[in-house]
What does this fold into?
Amino acid sequence: MFDSASIIVGLEIGTSKVCAVVGEINAAGSLNIIGVGQCRSRGVRKGEIVDPATTSEDVRNAIVEAEQMADVEIRSVYLGVTGGHIRGFTNRGVHPVVSADREITKEDVEDVIKNAKAINLPAENYVLHAIRQHFLVDGQDGISDPVGMLGARVEVDMHVVHGSFNRLQNPIRVVKGLQLDVEAIVFNGLASSLALLTNEQKEMGALVIDLGAGATEYAVYSNGIIKQIGALAVGGDHISNDLAFGLKAPLSRAEELKVQHGAALLDDSVKGQTVTVKNELGFAGKTINIEHLRRIMSLRLEEIFQLIEQQLSSAGFLDYLRAGVVLSGGGARTAEIQKLAENVFQLPAVVGKTNCVNGLRSALDQPEFATGIGLVKFGSFQQKKRRTGVARSIRESFHSLLNRE
Amino acid sequence: MSPGNSIRKFTIKVLGIGGAGCNAARHFARLNLPDVPCALLNTDAAALGQATSESKVLLGFKSMRGLGAGGDPERGRQAAEEDRDQIRAACEGADLIFIIAGVGGGTGTGAGPVVARIAKESGALVLAMVILPFDCEGGRRQRQAQMGLQEFKKAADGVICLPNQKLLQFVDEKTSLPEAFAIGNDWVAQGVRSMWRMLSQPSLINVDFADLCGVLRDRHAEGSLATAEAQGENRATEVINKLLAHPLIENGHGLAETAGALVSIAASNLTMNEVTRIMEQITRHCEQAHVIMGASIDESFGDRLSVTLVASRRESAANEEPPAHSRMEVPSNARFTNPAPPPAVQLPNGHGHGHGHGRGRKSSSRLRQTQLPLEILSKGRFEKSEPTLHQGQDLDVPTYIRRGVALN
It folds into this structure.
């Protein structure tokens, strides 16, 4: 029914849910979301797989659901990865222009990019993404393509996102075990930023924070390029755990209370307010103090934001984010989370909407699906590139990671 | 050291109690520190007979004929009560008494706290170095050890724990038993020596006993002690790496939960740069702790640089039951009910903690009241996952606990 090349599937193996998003590139070349499948995730902690067998089951369920909804057969996926081991840093490559007329050629540009990619990483680390930022010609900043310009020295900044090879291997093995191909692995923070930000926002400068259950990822854009990407292995699970500990409730109950009564800010209206939870027999059981619940929760969320803020303010990025903060992930559903983000970052904050693809409205409106949709978007970029032959096949570049058994 | 004769010299004594304590004290005596007499106290005459020069006290000869307490703390306690006078004589004239005892058996567990109390009554400040048994020695010994530890905490001004189990990290397959114990004893001996140096030798940045007590006392948690030495060009970096790799510090993770720390640096020539480098590293690992620092110049060190760290864990992080809890538990073990110290002794001890200490400690004691009557601090579902560390803080521990926010 469909040309298999036009079907793109994003698979996110998250800590709370496994989610498969099916997208289709239609005849006009635009991207359409045609199916979503999800399943509760049981074998993932802090964004990383701890129980491959159950995870494999969950992935299969999600994929089957997505296949049924979209009425397609899924053969390959773009896989989202995350975890506290993933880090990003910016490396600068320098190349002297040697030709007599000082004109910068294509070869010079390729060389400088190669230099910027040559970084010293421990052998067990794997480079997930090497994202090109602006070129500098003789110290002049903000050049997007220096070919044809005159200069003595061309430099480029590369933002390199890397993680531990073996730990990246785990989700790939799970997916391959289900007879699915992995087209590429993509860092979740990058994927959700692709789904959420419009080109104008990227140009103006924006910070995307994906508040997942196991990990929180962030990506900073400014002047249309990615400035910094990072992950923090703290997420919604930590809030539930804090609540379970502080309120002396079982974890499942804490999770429920978080969803029902949680908020990111502590206001006066809840002072002394309590709620009585029902026990397993349906009778009134324990009394929970809402004020404590909110306090525990807001402290944790505030800390997550503050940790990100510290990392960004030390690099001086916060002054360039005119489009503000965009929140996504399950954590973005927390009441008043925008206000907390505004307080911490001193920037306008919104909960992100994936408004740059067409398709199922119900899926697009939910912050949880931003990563999955972003993965599809990443896939569509890759396919476009492949079709036009601009870049060599992305599968080639991931060859070493994907074909290791 | 002292400006005039009118000021009496500060005297230190080391008492080894029980089998493990005596061995460690003998090991210490071989270091031959001037003016630090050692005394051995044991219920086992044969074990005591091995010792050569140090002064010895045989406890409980009347009731058990020098045959040992047989792993029963109650008998150990009785033995010590019988020979109170001899113990008092051994404590006579000291300002600071180090008590080294291995808990878990009979003498160290039962007699140790009694000795500590008598030593305290004699007017000295008491610092107990308590050696905890190996895990493989069985549940009963572990339980007795924990009870002994509680008793020591009530009786002594400060308690430093040295879990034998952590020794295993130093031991490979070929290490013989005597060697392994020698390593353990060496730990204790080095610890006592560095503390002796810290307290009695003149130094550039002085650390006195009040500082030490400030770190250890009133925390309701055991302190830990680590010493490291290095020499050569990069000795500052080396020494700090060694210190953080010390099993008792748990690769620096232990430091994250530290409430108070005392750092003493000693060398024959010490540069400012080295001091800063060491202190920077330590404070970075325990940002919220009350850190006291001392530095001394000792010509005998040659090229070596030695750092001693005494740290006490934050109470919520310590693996101990709250006092109310343990008191409830006592009756369950009828044999150990009696030796609970008479309230008259306990009270002044309990109240004496409060006075004369700095701000940091006051706030920590207030914090203690407002916190939930905690069970062991659990990381819940993150118990088994890799900890998320950020600047020495374990982010898996609830934020409100790390920030000390009260839920009333």
